[in-house]
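Structure tokens please, single chain.
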Amino acid sequence: MVRRRWLPEKSFPSYAYLPGRQPHPVRDPAGHSYNSEAMPLAAKASLDSDIFLWGLDLFNHGYYWEAHEAWEGLWQVAGRGAPLRTLFKGLILLSAAGVKIREGKHVAAIRHAGRAAALLRRLNTADHTFERALGMSPAGLADHAEAAVRTPAGLQVTVLGQPQPVFDFILGPSSGDRPNGSQKRRNGHP
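Here you go.
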């Protein structure tokens, strides 16, 4: 499965964090993001922001804890009760399910995936905005979330910290372009 990058100029973290197995990325001086701001804080919640796209890259490539962190910043600035806030919370919970699958904590993975699916199914997708940004409808993503925990991923033995995608889908704009026409031109031109 080809896992496209939306921000190929950004380097992935040096490891995919799993709680209790590596240094905490932010709090531990040995953490991959200690004293650094890998991505600026979100000023507003947007599906065409680099922060959203970075979350897609992280998620699709098996950096679930890191994707959760990226999307949490967007969730925090999204308006209370706004559909965008619900979408980000669903993505955060789906990322948490990815962490739990990697940890082999099946009950917790089921709980997080179920909560993510419930939120995603609440979204009205009549205007297809979320579908364009995710490459599938929120309801379709909810189905994938539930399927992922019904059929546990066949995890391979990996080197500690190596990312490992556990979902059999890829998130991202289905058109192949950045969402909402925000494709940046080369040579520094907007």
